[in-house]
Write a structure and sequence with these properties.
The chain is α/β, with parallel strands linked by helices. It has a single domain, classed as SPOUT methyltransferase, trefoil knot domain (Alpha/beta knot, 3-Layer(aba) Sandwich). Helices cover 42% and strands 22% of the residues. The chain has five helices and five strands; from the N terminus they run βαβαβαβαβα. α1 packs parallel to α5 and α3 packs across α5. It is globular and about 45 Å long.
């Protein structure tokens, strides 16, 4: 497929990776991604002390929306299920149209407010199962690395 110069990948994630094993896994993929793209991580504080779910999601969404840039992909259980090639195609098809920045969003334990859904260019799902948001962040990082490997002709994806 060929490589694309100057790809920028942003990940906006609600919540922090408190346990070192989650952080280690994410850091490993982030290091691999950095071979192909500039990667930025923006962590949004989970507003878990707000008892009203809608108010919590609205408060988190304000921080998410302030960080949106480029082509925006929300990971959510209601999204379309795509395979590895489809994940890579999101980047390649948009890059061929001049888009060089991609922002992926991982919501918190309660998901994302509808206004985040409305701003997303694409909503994808990692399957019919529900993943804890910490694990979803790791799966997302792995899929980004896999997609960039495919695009750049690396044998990782085989």
């Amino acid at each position: 497929m060929g490589s694309f110069a100057l790809i920028k990948i942003n990940i906006i994630a609600v919540g922090r990776l408190k346990e070192s094993y989650w952080d280690d896994a994410y850091s490993d993929y982030a290091k691999q991604i950095s071979r192909y793209a500039k990667l930025s991580l923006f962590e949004v504080v989970e507003q878990s002390k707000i008892l009203d779910i809608n108010a919590q999601l609205l408060a988190e969404s304000q921080h998410i929306l302030n960080k949106l840039s480029g082509y925006t992909i929300l990971t959510d259980r209601t999204g379309i299920i795509i395979d590895d090639a489809g994940f890579a195609k999101i980047i390649t098809s948009n890059a061929l149209n001049g888009i060089s920045e991609f922002t992926y969003i991982v919501g918190g334990s309660r998901g994302c407010h509808p206004n985040v859904h409305a701003k997303a260019n694409k909503i994808i799902s990692f399957g019919k199962i529900t993943l804890p948001h910490r694990l979803a962040r790791i799966v997302l990082a792995e899929q980004i690395y896999r997609a960039l490997s495919v695009i750049n002709g690396s044998p990782y994806h085989k």
